């Protein structure tokens, strides 16, 4: 593997890992809240969270770009802090994170919904505070759903293209991931090179999905199902 | 223990006012009468209750004074009907779940008392219903609770398993000396375990007081399909001539179905249905029933359905016999009268025996 390809693969994997890490805590919190909250507004919030799954990724990218533009509230705040996001590797991570968020939430929520709230009630009578019971009962029983969600989010982030290209551009050596590189190579007519990158993508995606499959299938060991 | 509370529920408002002095209380009522909600209020798991709850001198709830102790600080040992063991932990880890450094723990005692040593490394999914209940009981007991809250702990078990678990409950009551509040819809269980009783119907208290009094009359009418039973506790004897006798007191013992497998001196409880007892105003001779007991009528009570509950004192033990109004009239039975009771040994049904068979 040549140096350029190694750098590309490492950058792509690092972006996917960072995006997943970025959404892990807010994603798990949102999933837990959705699993437990039975009141009004649940349907609207759920639909909003699912939107990035079905919207054209370029539309999501455009919204992000607008949010971060220099004349927006957020953009000005970032500007005064001296943080640049648009067309930097940070934007790649952000775009992948936003696109992967619904996958994490959906899967983690399903995990939390399988936990009987009465088990938490029992834990509380045994001296656990709400928080302690979450970490000793709820999370250990829902971890498979959370892990599956994180792996799906990681896999999704590996292949992100549409949103990324809008907020981060396609800058070789700076914001270019595998999927962006494949597009660039075909544009340049380097079909053989593009095919080679596609092959590498297949290997990466296969690895990520295979781990997800194994984790999901082991459900039921020790009777947790 | 002192209760004065109100809790609005979907179909009615639960209103309970009671004061208990003993360490074993039965809460009876049909399903949907508010029993489980009452337990949840005591455990602090149910929001929206108003009033006052005092257990063991500690105020757990006093809405007037804005006191509402959270469940983790109440020291209530909650044992739900379906055990609800943590499936990701072994039996031993379940039992130690509530143990905290620097706070009293009764893990070893609980494990020993409930004979759980061989099960400690097993996961809940591999345990039988009765074993799960024992682990749930030990888990609650291990935290040294101020009160054990038992929500129909035997309801999910079949009769054979009940007989195995009940003795453990008696041990918890008598050996571990933990106060317990026992929710059930079974008159027999309540009688075997409780000294005081509270009967709920549609969220309101129908009766409260000493178990003997409350369970004798009020509870029966409210628990459909529950026959009136006399519960007798004593030790088993095996006379040299054969057979098995239950010695209730110095002066009272009776033949029960032969149980040679239970050693002499075993503690046991039997139930005798009130309908299965014959009452006579004259001495009984030449009857096939093996037990003939002489006693005095204490009182007569209306039992509904054209029947009368006749209370008879036999050597200091209160029996209830069901008679039709016609029979009471014809025999002119009145308090203070001498009567004879005939009880077939086969009518004595064993509820539990003290040697905790595993």
Number of domains of chain B: 2
Order of helices and strands of chain A: HHHHHHHHHH
Instruction: Estimate the strand proportion of chain A.
Output: under 5%
Radius of gyration of chain A: 20 Å
What is the annotated CATH architecture of the largest domain in chain B? 3-Layer(aba) Sandwich
CATH domain class name of chain A: Mainly Alpha
- Main sheet of chain A? none
Oligomer: heterodimer
* Side-by-side strand order of the widest sheet of chain B: 7-8-9-3-10-11
Q: What does the radius of gyration of chain B come to?
A: 22 Å
Return the average pLDDT of chain B rounded to an integer.
85
- What CATH calls the topology of the largest domain in chain B is Rossmann fold
Q: Terminal Cα separation of chain A, in Å?
A: 43 Å
Percent helix range of chain A: over 70%
CATH architecture of chain A: Orthogonal Bundle
Q: What structural class do helix, strand and pairing data of chain A support?
A: mainly alpha
Shape of chain A: globular
SSE diagram, text form:
The complex is a heterodimer of chains A (225) and B (358).
Chain A: H1 3-36, H2 42-54, H3 57-68, H4 73-81, H5 89-113, H6 117-125, H7 130-158, H8 162-168, H9 178-187, H10 191-217
Helix pairs in contact in A: 1-5, 1-7, 2-5, 3-8, 5-7, 5-8, 6-7, 7-10, 9-10
Chain B: E1 2-8, E2 13-19, E3 24-28, H1 35-43, E4 50-55, E5 58-62, E6 67-68, E7 76-79, H2 91-95, H3 107-113, H4 129-141, E8 147-151, H5 159-176, E9 180-184, H6 187-193, E10 196-201, E11 204-210, H7 211-222, E12 229-237, E13 244-247, E14 253-256, E15 267-273, E16 277-280, E17 291-304, E18 307-314, E19 317-324, H8 325-330, E20 338-343, E21 349-353
Parallel strand pairs in B: 3-9, 3-10, 7-8, 8-9
Antiparallel strand pairs in B: 1-2, 1-4, 4-5, 5-6, 10-11, 12-13, 12-15, 13-14, 15-21, 16-20, 17-18, 17-20, 18-19
Helix pairs in contact in B: 4-5
